[in-house]
């Protein structure tokens, strides 16, 4: 793989699939949901990564009332928060987060506060001080609102941020926010991020002159 070097002032990090491997839980919960609604589980799994649950439901069941999706999403979040079996760090995530101590970065996740807290703890990862969760936004990824809020919280222009994402919805959100995107893992490559890595062992961040970060990818 050819190494890529990106210069930034802040990093915005997705959680599921980027820092935390929660695929086992997501598969269990969403395939049960698919069965209840008579949907093809494989097709459902192509939609759900990166989005808030109610936003996925709106895509999959377009004629269902929004309030029903929101209520169903609350039940799903409770199930997901209670189920941490198989939740582990993405390789390199702990060292990557440790390298960001004192550097501008934020978590930008479609999970809510409870789920993000539980999953990061289950994976043995520290929560970044700045966190944009489902409660922080009015629109789910692929809308750019979460990433734009993360940049604003850090006081950094969107063009000076680099996003780390694994899903099509997340990569689209980063691009729509005017940010460069590093794709993490096998799902990411299909969505044309600026650079892609197998996992976070292939990323190194250093602080350089002034307030710049140099991100070595690959």
Write structural notes for this entry:
With 218 residues, this protein is of the alpha/beta class. Helix content is 38%, strand content 20%. α6 links the parallel β5 and β6 (130-132). α1 crosses α2 and α3 (53-60) packs across α4. It is globular and about 55 Å long.
The DSSP helix count reads 8
Helix content: 25-40%
Number of strands: 11
Categorize the overall geometry: globular
Task: Label the structural class.
Answer: alpha/beta
Main β sheet profile: 6 strands, parallel
The rounded Rg comes to: 17 Å
Strand % is: 15-25%
Average per-residue pLDDT, rounded, comes to 95
How is the quaternary structure best described? single chain
Query: Unreliable runs, pLDDT <50, ≥5 residues?
Result: none
Query: What order do the SSEs take from the amino end to the carboxyl end, as H and E?
Result: EEEHHHHEHEHEHEHEEEE
Gap between N and C termini: 6 Å
Please give the order of strands in the largest beta sheet.
6-5-2-7-8-9
Topology diagram in text:
Elements: E1 4-8, E2 10-13, E3 20-21, H1 23-36, H2 41-48, H3 53-60, H4 66-82, E4 88-89, H5 93-99, E5 105-108, H6 113-122, E6 130-132, H7 145-154, E7 161-165, H8 168-176, E8 180-184, E9 195-197, E10 203-207, E11 213-217
Parallel strand pairs: 2-5, 2-7, 5-6, 7-8, 8-9
Antiparallel strand pairs: 1-11, 3-4, 10-11
Helix pairs in contact: 1-2, 3-4, 4-6
